[in-house]
Amino acid sequence: MNIDTIANNIQRNLEKLSIFNATPGEGCTRLPFTKEARQAADYLKICMANAGLKVHEDQAGNVIGVLEGEDPEAPALVVGSHFDTVINGGIFDGLAGVVAGIEIARLLKESGKPLKRNFVVIAFNDEEGMRFGTGYFGSKAMLGQITIEDLHRYKDKDGISVYEAMQEYGLVPEQVLDAKQDLSKIKAFIELHIEQGPVLYQNKVDIGLVECIVGIQRYLITVHGRADHAGTTPMDMRIDAVEAATKVISKIPDWAREKGDGTVATTGFIKVLPGGVNIVAEQVQFTVDIRSRNNDNINDIVAKIKEELDKACKANGASWEMDNKLTIDPVNLNENMLTLLEQKCQDYGYSYQRIISGAGHDALAIGQVLDTVMVFVPSKDGRSHCPAEWTEYKDIAKAVTIIHDLILDLQ
Ligand code: GLV
Ligand code: MN
Ligand code: MN
Question: What's the pLDDT score for residue 112?
């Protein structure tokens, strides 16, 4: 395998895919079920077909390519990641793992060696949860974990439901249940992803072998106050949603820090209504995303948030509600595949280390039910979810070679 050829192919595809972007010049924005997502999906279908894969799009908008093995009954090996991005994100998060999968397919096909098992590449739809505040839509649909009720329940900031967005995208929402795959037909799932943190880059290590992915809970919290005149309503006669909400928001980071074990909690979105300089806030909406290796820590912070919301709202007469958008347990990845990958790194002379993922991935959802492993490649300065996100194409190519060899081992 020629590393330069692999790196060049990956670069060409990632650069081409970066054009499907709603915010050119300000990072990459490819939200699910948008024009840009459709363009990327269509381009991926061409790439997969060119690599010799049989291509289709499932009822959840996942793009799937299959390189057929000799025994159609033998459970398949699946490589994949997502093709959506966050707002103003980078071009590597997600798609690096998809184009890597396509490159592995090309290498397998070109080698001319017959495969026993099907080799499948999946470009998952809507992993980030950016648009609907959720996450892992495509991978959960593949696992049969998305319901029609979910499609109506989750809405974007303009009030468009997943159901409506799917229709706009050309999918039939009622058919989402058909995206469920027969999981007994999948032997293992392997995801290549950029690290999105500084560890590998700082340590000058080529490959991260992911042992564990943190659990995540996400909430949209709404605090209801009362709109009043900011000048004439005395401080003890107002029901200020901002006052109640911010008392809670300001405590959340310390509750995570107190855990002292890498637990993190983030309020990444706050909306005040009606949002006027001289109007007491009628309503505040904010999100919380809590992550830890230890589910008890997440549950404890959620309990503290509820307690504090009660206290803050009681103090001025406000009220609150909390909508759970995502609950997913931490997952340990497959030790057998990790050991095999370690061996591959040694064979190639790549430096490697075991690592924990604080980012969520399709592998987090899939790893709950199938044998799963992840391979990380270094992110320059640890930057990600921003336009500065960068990974060397050669580093992705190195990860491609070890996953390619793992696929051969697992035949
Ligand atoms: C996805 O990148 C996430 O970890 O939120
Ligand atoms: Mn990602
Ligand atoms: Mn991401």
Answer: 87
